[in-house]
Amino acid sequence: MSVQFIGMIGHRLSSETIAPSGPLLDKSYISAFAQAHEEAGFDRILVGYWSDQPDGFLVTALAGQSTRTINFLLAHRPGFIAPTLAARKLATLDHLLNGRLALHVISGGSDIEQRKDGDYLDHDQRYARTDEFLEVVRRVWTSDIPFDHAGEHYRANGAFSAIKPLQKPHIPVYFGGSSAAALKVAGKHADVFALWGESLEQTRETIAAVRAEAARHGRTVEFSVSFRPIIAPTEAQAWEKAETIRETARQRLATSGAVHPIKPDSVGAQRLRETVAQGDRVDTRLWTGIAALVGGGHNSTALVGTPEQVADALLEYYDLGVTSFLIRGFDPLNDAVEYGRELIPLTRAKVAARQQQALTA
User: Fold this and answer.
1) Strands 286-287 and 302-305, how do they pair?
2) Using CA atoms in the order 304, 307, 309, 312, what is the torsion angle rounded to 10 degrees?
């Protein structure tokens, strides 16, 4: 299979190593950031979700109007918008973007974050709600007649949407979550399962577990893994760059407090902490320096080396069945441009060569 690259845009310049600058909703930066990804050859851009930041629906709409061909991946936490309304909002946005939208469903990995928006369900209850949420959303997207729904978390009489997604049979659903409860929902609903950059062995285990859950429903699932590539002309320069990033992030943490809240109740964060425990460098290229600083609180592991070395590391995950890579840097816009110049075309060429070898073997 071919490989896809997903980037990530924010609503203003900020990272673990760069203090926020510009207005909170920096419209010019959003447009320029999205355009840079499109010009760099990314296939899709993730727009994240935070309980205290600008609304992702509107950030996506602005970025979509600033671009022509790149696709979008909108993060959404079920529980704060009724699934009937969410389905209509997403279908409308898919029309606005000319069929370029995908939905990334995140049930919530932090009780503290969830409670900021008034959600007091526990971890497993959130995933049970997500299961029901996606059942209703998909039915709204595909039903030609009104329907009633009576579940544990949602009720509706005569639910129907006149506007359907442009994409058929529906908008692609990406899904994240590492717990047993999450994997059950993924097997039932995910078109693409997204995981953070863990070791090759951890990734192999997760892929097998998700495939087993999907098989119970007669389904297949694709896989995406997130990394923070650190590339340079030589390997020594790349590792030196990584150490500079670590020290800069450490200094920023010391002066401004935690960049991201640690998530003690998130299984995904726990798994990243297990990766950190394996050492600073795992599987040759996987670097856990920033993941250690933030307690595994977000996609924070890096692949370090020359573009050739990092591309080869990505291929090791590709060989496990990963066909999408979410890559973002610590200097977000400039790194996206560099990836488009140095890493993305090289990796695509290596994947194409690997496919050709398979055909002729």
Assistant:
1) antiparallel
2) 110
319: buried, middle or exposed (CB in 10 Å: 19+, 13-18, 0-12)? exposed
Which pTM does this prediction carry?
A: 0.95
Residue 359 has a pLDDT of 85
| Average pLDDT for the chain | 94
Q: Tell me how far apart the alpha carbons of residues 331 and 11 are, in angstroms, rounded to a whole number.
A: 14
C-alpha–C-alpha distance, residues 7 and 9, integer Å? 7
What pLDDT band is residue 178 in, cutting at 50, 70 and 90? confident
Residue 259 confidence (pLDDT) = 47
Q: Report which DSSP code applies to 24.
A: S
Residue from 347, 295, 349 nearest 317 by CA:
347
Burial class (CB in 10 A: 0-12, 13-18, 19+), 195: buried
Alpha-helix residue ranges (DSSP H) falling in the chain:
27-40, 56-65, 83-96, 111-116, 123-142, 180-189, 200-215, 235-256, 267-277, 289-293, 307-320, 332-338, 344-360
Residue pair 105/194 in contact by the 8 Å Cβ criterion? no
> 153: which DSSP letter?
S
- Judged by DSSP in three states, 322 sits in coil
